[in-house]
Amino acid sequence: MATIVVLGSGIMATALATPLTDNGHQVRLVGTHLDREIISSIQETGIHPNLGLKVPDGTTAYQLEDAETAFEGVDLVMSGVNSFGVEWAGQQLAKLLRPGMHVIALAKGMHADDDGNLTILPRLLASQIPDDLRSQLTFSAIAGPSIAGEVAVHRHTSVVFTGDTPEQLERWREMFATPYYHVWTNPDFVGVEVCAATKNCYAFGAGFMQGLLDAMGDEAGDRYVNFNYGAALFGQASVEMIQFMELLGGQPTTPIGLPGIGDCFVTSMGGRNVKCGRLVGSGLTFSEARAQMPGVTLEGAAAIVVIGKAINRLTERGVIPADRFPLLRHLYEVVGLDQPVNMPWDTFFGSNGSGQA
Amino acid sequence: MATIVVLGSGIMATALATPLTDNGHQVRLVGTHLDREIISSIQETGIHPNLGLKVPDGTTAYQLEDAETAFEGVDLVMSGVNSFGVEWAGQQLAKLLRPGMHVIALAKGMHADDDGNLTILPRLLASQIPDDLRSQLTFSAIAGPSIAGEVAVHRHTSVVFTGDTPEQLERWREMFATPYYHVWTNPDFVGVEVCAATKNCYAFGAGFMQGLLDAMGDEAGDRYVNFNYGAALFGQASVEMIQFMELLGGQPTTPIGLPGIGDCFVTSMGGRNVKCGRLVGSGLTFSEARAQMPGVTLEGAAAIVVIGKAINRLTERGVIPADRFPLLRHLYEVVGLDQPVNMPWDTFFGSNGSGQA
After folding, report:
1. CA–CA distance, A157 with B94 (Å, rounded to integer)
2. CA-CA distance, A51 to A33, in Å (whole number)?
3. Cα(A261)–Cα(A195) distance, integer angstroms
4. How many beta-carbon pairs below 8 A join chains A and B?
5. Which of A188, A227, A251 sits opposite B266 (nearest CB)?
6. Do A5 and A71 form a contact (C-beta atoms < 8 A)?
7. B157 contacts on A by Cβ (under 8 Å)
8. Distance (Å, rounded) from C-alpha A9 to C-alpha A47?
């Protein structure tokens, strides 16, 4: 049986303790400076307040100052810090990791430099660690359709493990897989992680369909909703995810199945991003909608800004044609530039409804 | 301005009168023998009872015995009869059509012979018409994510027109397209129609996620639902749709965007098939669930039986390997053989979560 330490005690990091402890492993959750109350709650009552559940037996919680103790003798390290804290997490791990250790990164998003060059977050995490140590570590990630709370209550969940070292992925699969937590492995690290980041962007748009009905008020009636609209956006998301594979070097088939389409489906079904998208769809600017959700983390909106800016920069530089990624570009106009929703339908779906150039 | 006649006055055929009449065209709805009350209602009150809406100005309703009058001098013929009546519709059209006429077929499903050879429904429709007349007609179809009632109330809808004669498709696009009804054209007739048929099968499975929660009762709690399960099935549907392209000669990219993924999304959001799937997911056999929905047309369940049987036959004949279409095969076990839902997760997603062999 193995010992897994997690830096960051968010809901996904904590939910993964369920399959791990079901398999007899020990999990050590280390809170960040922002997780102090979560860790205290788990230490005192066993309950993770945001997940609304008791953490499973075999899980131990540590405050950040006890991180060194928690990292002693572990078989696997997970970085559960969200996309806003990846650089910070990398700097912490630089102090805590030892040669030969293995890291699974959970945050979803992308990093961009001023030229619009996009990097997946596990690489950003690794970049914070000095070269000599980094070369003696492995980095992997978990993606696919996975609402954390559902994992925590043993709902069937099918995910993809990806990373630079395929032989490690088999090892992590054995460690995590249970009769309800189903694991596939895919060596297309870039492709899988780009799907995971961009699905958060497109799921923001999934809120528009309901928001537009909200704006119509009584005129909308109660008989017919707006699924045709949402389905078209979902279809265009699938077209653009494949365009992202070409741009960033993923396999063109990676968005099929779990990593892109499956994950975009689950993320579109609800949550904070969709809620904010609904407010925007109803007629608020993004800034106004944002102000109605104080303190709420919106990783999808943040990813839209990073990726949207990068796409515009890459277009200026002549790296990508202006007719690629029209939905992502419009999401950037809405979220990054506070413009109203005005879907550019004619620019979608290529010439044949399936993305053909 | 053009005149369009529709054989069959179901909700989709009637909903399409909205964009057509908005463009100034005249629409003649001809009821089948099963549509007698619908036609009477439209003739007397203007209201289509199943759609719950007044048909737009410019729409005229005819009982079946007045079909010859309705077919006089028309520019376009639509077959709006559902998948159970395609052969009947073809036999009627054989009497009503004249050389040089154009047909758009709306029914979604597949036909199979005893050897498991699958045919798209527009070809089954055409096969009922004598060769010499048939060779002087064109056949097209409409697919993509489109809930009929939403079209009827002017919701944004994005669809694909397909058929054997691409130059005609442009003409139909001009006739139908409005600022809310967005039309793309795709010459991959087989591919688009196979997506439209199979999405109905997979949408049946979309009901299982809620049904499984129903079966858990209070144990399910009210905090976490079962979207991870549904998203995984949706992802596997995308894998299998691409497998269907290979089997039946569609383009491998056709399921991307509107025809496959977009349409599967909208069909999974609700309706009769999903409701029946939910009952089955909750623990009823399909026969028991079917008995709870008397008189309700279940095209998805019917398509599962046709396609599932054909796949088993094609496997016996060595045409397809036994590891293809595992979700469709299980749907057939459930719907065609009354077996309980027991998802064969390990057979899904190929080796890498994205359908790789």
Report:
1. 51
2. 18
3. 8
4. 236
5. A227
6. yes
7. 228-229, 232
8. 12
For domain A191-347, give the CATH number: 1.10.1040.10
Q: Token digits for A173?
A: 């699969």
Q: Does residue A223 surpass a pLDDT of 90? A: no
**SS3 state of residue B63:** coil
Report d(CA B329, CA B211) in Å as an integer.
20
Location of structure tokens 């277009």: A315
Residue percentage of chain B with pLDDT more than 90? 97
Place of tokens 């669930």: B289
Q: What is the pLDDT of residue B133?
A: 98
**For B156, nearest residue in chain A (alpha carbons):** A229
Of the partner residues A156, A225, A258, the one whose CB lies closest to the CB of residue B235: A258
Distance (Å, rounded) from C-alpha B205 to C-alpha A214?
30
B76, B51 in Cβ contact below 8 A?
A: no
Closest-CA distance of chain B to residue A327, Å: 12
CB atoms within 10 A of CB B292: 11
pLDDT in tens, A205-216: 999 999 999 999
Per-residue confidence (pLDDT) for residue B288, from 0 to 100: 98
Instruction: Tell me the nearest-neighbour CA distance from B326 into chain A, angstroms.
Output: 13
The first and second tokens of residue A148, run together, are 């954390």
Q: Is the pLDDT of residue B27 over 90?
A: yes
Average pLDDT over residues B291-312: 96
Interface mutation vs chain A, best among B228, B261, B347, most A CBs within 10 Å = B228
Nearest Cα residue to A125 out of A230, A8, A218, A297: A8
Q: What is the 3-state secondary structure (H, E, C) of chain A?
A: CCEEEEECCCHHHHHCHHHHHHCCCEEEEECCHHHHHHHHHHHHHCEECCCCEECCCCEEEECHHHHHHHCCCCCEEEECCCHHHHHHHHHHHHHHCCCCCEEEECCCCEEECCCCCEEEHHHHHHHCCCHHHHCCCEEEEEECCCCHHHHHCCCCEEEEEEECCHHHHHHHHHHHCCCCEEEEEECCHHHHHHHHHHHHHHHHHHCHHHHHHHHHHHHHCCCCCCHHHHHHHHHHHHHHHHHHHHHHCCCCCCCCCHHHHHHHHHHHCCCHHHHHHHHHHCCCCHHHHHHCCCCCCCHHHHHHHHHHHHHHHHHHCCCCCCCCCHHHHHHHHHHHCCCCCCCCHHHCCCCCCCCCC
Q: In this structure, is the dihedral angle defined by the CA atoms of residues A264, A266, A270 and A271, taken in order, positive or negative?
A: negative
> Can you name the CATH fold of A3-187?
Rossmann fold (3.40.50)
Sequence-distant (≥ 6) Cβ neighbours of residue B101 within 8 angstroms: B74, B77, B137
**Is pLDDT of A345 > 90?**
yes
Find chain A residues with C-beta within 8 A of B269's C-beta.
Answer: 227, 230-231
Q: What is the pLDDT of residues A81-117, one digit of tens each?
A: 999 999 999 999 999 999 999 999 999 999 999 999 9
* Identity at B157, one-letter amino acid code: T
Do B155 and A226 make contact, defined as CB atoms within 8 angstroms?
yes
Domain boundaries of chain A, sorted by first residue: 3-187, 191-347
Q: Say if residues A55 and A25 touch (Cβ distance below 8 Å).
A: no
ipTM over 0.90 threshold: yes
Residue B56, CA distances (Å) to A256, B24, B66, B91, B174 in order: 40, 11, 21, 29, 19
Distance, CA of B267 to CA of B193 (rounded, Å):
15
What are phi and psi for residue A175, nearest 5 degrees? -70, -35
Residue of B nearest to A354 (CA): B257
Confidence of residue B143 (pLDDT cuts 50, 70, 90): very high
**For residues A336 and A308, is the Cβ–Cβ distance under 8 A?**
yes
Q: Residue B163 belongs to what H/E stretch?
A: strand B157-163
- Residue with the two structure tokens 């799907």: A195
- The four Cα atoms A95, A96, A99, A101 give a dihedral, to 10 degrees, of -140
